[in-house]
C-alpha cells in the first residue's frame, strides 16, 4: 500500500485516527482497496477499486450520482498539490479518478451489498446519536499504551469489529474452499497421470506385440520365398517346387541314363520346370539334340517308362504333350 508522506507528518496523522483507516475501509467495503495517504493525513482511494468492490458496474455514473466533485479528483492534481510524483506500479495513472474517505462513505451508503449493511447501520447510529446528544464518542480501549505522551487508544465500534470478524471468517472459508479445490484438483491430476501411465504401458505392450508379429511374418515370408509349396506328395507332405537340377538328379536315380537319353533330358528338363509341360515337336527336339526323330522318341519312351515324365495328350498339330511325373 503506497502512502507518500513525511515521517513526522505521518505520525501526526496517525495520532488523529481513532480507528485505523485500513480496518475502517475494510469494514465499510468488505475488501482491501488501494489507498494513498497525503502528508496532511487525508486518504484517497481509486474510484474504480471502490466501485468494483461495491458492485457499481459504471464507476463514472456512480461518482456522478453519489459523490460531489469536492470529494473526487484526478490523481495528478492531488499529488501535484503536495509536490509528489505519481506512485509507481499497480496501474497508478495520471488521469486516475480518486475519491476521498467521505466520497468512499457516500458510495458505501448507496450500495446494496449485504457486506456493507453493518457499517451503514453504524453510520446511522452515529448520526442519530449526534442528533440526540450533540456528540458521538468512541469508548476507550480497556488496554491503553504505557509510553509517556502516547495517545488514547479507542475501542473499535462493535458493528465495525463484527463486520471485520465476519469478513475474516468468510475469507478463511474461501481460502479453505480454495485449498480443498486445489487438493481435489491435484488428486484428479494424479489419477489422470496414473491412467496416462497405464495407457502408455498398454500402448508400449501393443507396439511390442505388433513388432513381434511383424518379425514373425517376415520370417514366414522369408521361408516362403525359400520354399515355394506345391501340391501335397503322397502321405500329405508338402514338396518343394522342382528345379532343373533336382529333376535331372532325380532322373539319374530312376534309370541308367545313356548318353542319348541324357542329351534329351538336358533339353526337355528346363522346359518342363519353367513351363510345366513339354509341347515341343519331336523334330524340334531332334534338331536341338542332333539325334534322329526316332532316337528322340525312344528316349522319351524310356523316360516315360521310368515314371520321369507322363503323357498329357497332344497338341492340335499332333505333337505329344508331356509333364513331369511327381507322383
TrEMBL record:
<dbReference type="Pfam" id="PF02498">
    <property type="entry name" value="Bro-N"/>
</dbReference>
<feature type="domain" description="Bro-N">
    <location>
        <begin position="18"/>
        <end position="134"/>
    </location>
</feature>
<dbReference type="InterPro" id="IPR003497">
    <property type="entry name" value="BRO_N_domain"/>
</dbReference>
<keyword id="KW-0238">DNA-binding</keyword>
<dbReference type="GO" id="GO:0003677">
    <property type="term" value="F:DNA binding"/>
</dbReference>
<protein>
    <submittedName>
        <fullName>DNA-binding protein</fullName>
    </submittedName>
</protein>
Amino acid at each position: 500500500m503506497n502512502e507518500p508522506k513525511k515521517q513526522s507528518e505521518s505520525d501526526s496523522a496517525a495520532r488523529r485516527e481513532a480507528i485505523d483507516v485500513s480496518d475502517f475501509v475494510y469494514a465499510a467495503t468488505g475488501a482491501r482497496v488501494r489507498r494513498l495517504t497525503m502528508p496532511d493525513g487525508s486518504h484517497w482511494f481509486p474510484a474504480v477499486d471502490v466501485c468494483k468492490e461495491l458492485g457499481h458496474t459504471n464507476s463514472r455514473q456512480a461518482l456522478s450520482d453519489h459523490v460531489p466533485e469536492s470529494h473526487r479528483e484526478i490523481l495528478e492534481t492531488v499529488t501535484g498539490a503536495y509536490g509528489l510524483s505519481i506512485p509507481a506500479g499497480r496501474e497508478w495513472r495520471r488521469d486516475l479518478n480518486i475519491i476521498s474517505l467521505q466520497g468512499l462513505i457516500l458510495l458505501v451508503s448507496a450500495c446494496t451489498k449485504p457486506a456493507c449493511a453493518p457499517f451503514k447501520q453504524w453510520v446511522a447510529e452515529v448520526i442519530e446519536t449526534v442528533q440526540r446528544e450533540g456528540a458521538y464518542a468512541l469508548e476507550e480501549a480497556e488496554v491503553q499504551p504505557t509510553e509517556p505522551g502516547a495517545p488514547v487508544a479507542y475501542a473499535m465500534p462493535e458493528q465495525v469489529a463484527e463486520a471485520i470478524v465476519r469478513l475474516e471468517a468468510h475469507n478463511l472459508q474461501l481460502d479453505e474452499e480454495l485449498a480443498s479445490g486445489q487438493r481435489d484438483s491435484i488428486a484428479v491430476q494424479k489419477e489422470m497421470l496414473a491412467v496416462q501411465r497405464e495407457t502408455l504401458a498398454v500402448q508400449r505392450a501393443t507396439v511390442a506385440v505388433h513388432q513381434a508379429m511383424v518379425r514373425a511374418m517376415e520370417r514366414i515370408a522369408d521361408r516362403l520365398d525359400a520354399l515355394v509349396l506345391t501340391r501335397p506328395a503322397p502321405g500329405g507332405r508338402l514338396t518343394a517346387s522342382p528345379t532343373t537340377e533336382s529333376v535331372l538328379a532325380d532322373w539319374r536315380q530312376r534309370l541308367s541314363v545313356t548318353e542319348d537319353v541324357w542329351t534329351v533330358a538336358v533339353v526337355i528338363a528346363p522346359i518342363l520346370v519353367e513351363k510345366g509341360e513339354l509341347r515341343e515337336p519331336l523334330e524340334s527336339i531332334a534338331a536341338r539334340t542332333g539325334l534322329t526323330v526316332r532316337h528322340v522318341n525312344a528316349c522319351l519312351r524310356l523316360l516315360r517308362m521310368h515314371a520321369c515324365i507322363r503323357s498329357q495328350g497332344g497338341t492340335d498339330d499332333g505333337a505329344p504333350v508331356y509333364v513331369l511325373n511327381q507322383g
